[in-house]
Amino acid sequence: MKRYIIYFIGVVILATGLTLNTKAGLGVSPIISVPFSISEIFDLNFGNLTLVLYSGFIITEMILHKKDKRLRLLDLLQLPFSLIFTRFLNLFTYIIPDFNEYSILLRLFALFLAIVLTGIGAATMLNMNLIPNPGDGIVQAIATKIQKNIGFTKNCVDFISLCTTIFIGLCFAHSVVGVGLGTVLAMIGVGRVISVYQFAYDKMSSFHT
């Protein structure tokens, strides 16, 4: 039961971090840049668009895992996760204010906090070894299929996401939407936060055993 509670806390922290990332107004992380840019350009619901993206990831994972029933079941469990997670995105989008009108220092602080929360949330969920975030699940599924390491595959998925976001922005808004300094810092920073958190988690685990 404890694992499920900690996992749920990780989900909430991750949703808070990703939402705060969009509110800082400095560019969002690559994996959510596509739904964010579409939501900004066409004034659509960000959480619902993220659910559509995650559903696409899950379908792709199930195709890649067609020979493994256990993995396909795990993929299917990502659907209810995605529904709950994106409802939190909608909730926090409503609660957290936009920082566009504030000073650059406050926006940078919001971005820093967003990166830290995103990393902690992702690492917390990962350590509980339950249902993966579809954004992580698709990377792992592709990495296994093409027999490349997760780091390389993650970079490729991020690159494709950014190119798609830039293309959408240039085509429909005649400008780049959702990509900026925050995008670069998120790409670098979230991984570092996860590494530091994982190091501390492993140390604490070894101390208690």
Automatic annotation (TrEMBL):
Annotated Pfam families: DUF6198
Membrane spanning residue stretches: 5-26, 46-64, 102-126, 183-201
Keyword field: Membrane, Transmembrane, Transmembrane helix
Protein name: DUF6198 family protein
